[in-house]
Amino acid sequence: MDHNTPGMEGMEPPSHTDDDMPMMHMAFFWSKNAEILFSGWPGRRTGMYALALIFIFVLCVIVEWLSHCKWIKKSSSNVSAGLIQTAIYGLRIGLAYMVMLAVMSFNVGVFIVAVCGHTFGFFLFGSSVSKKSDFSDLPPQSC
């Protein structure tokens, strides 16, 4: 900040200690002291960090489930099928964006758990292990 700018006389840059404001990381870091999705969550407690990782894992599995499940009956009309597809798509994308925002915390643990959650979800719902047919209501998310 340039203190010689007109109208800025007497203004000092704010000073914060580590306890006042969380550090915003712009590179991967490994620590339980992270802020994921919500202000102040999970905090500095190991148990809450573990809960946050479990939450992200479950979100990823749900995204994969929504990507590969069969919701529409063959007897459904085009309108009702379209409405169901649209609702599932909106829910899937909303959850996928939540996962993306969690990964944007740059916490290595969150990144690893998100990749593992998507992988496990694909194994359960998208791989040939669970396939009874080649059709699903929604196309899988593309990269």
Automatic annotation (TrEMBL):
The keyword Transmembrane helix applies. GO terms for cellular component: plasma membrane. The chain crosses the membrane at residues 47-67. It is found in: Membrane. It is a multi-pass membrane protein. One of its GO terms (molecular function) is copper ion transmembrane transporter activity. Keywords: Copper, Copper transport, Ion transport, Membrane, Transmembrane, Transmembrane helix, Transport. It holds the Pfam family Ctr. The keyword Transmembrane helix applies. Belongs to the copper transporter (Ctr) (TC 1.A.56) family. SLC31A subfamily. This is Copper transport protein.
